[in-house]
Amino acid sequence: MARPQLTDAQIEARFPKKTPVAADVQDVADKSIDQERFAADMAQMQADAGALTLAQAQRASSVRAVALQLGYQLPMDHIDPDLIQRDISSNMRRSVEACLEVGRGLRVLKEACEHGDFVERLDDLGVDRYVAARFMQAAVKFSNVPTSAHLTKAIGTQSKLLEMLILDDGQLEELALTGQTGELSLDDVATMSVKELRAALRETRAEKDAGDQLLEKKNAKIDQLERAQKRIAKLPPDEALAKTKNEATTILSETLGLVRGGLRQALIALNDAPDEASKQAFMAGLVGAVIVELNGLRDEFNLPETAGDGTPEWERWAKANPVDATPTTR
Question: Which DSSP helix (H) or strand (E) runs through 116?
Answer without folding.
Answer: none
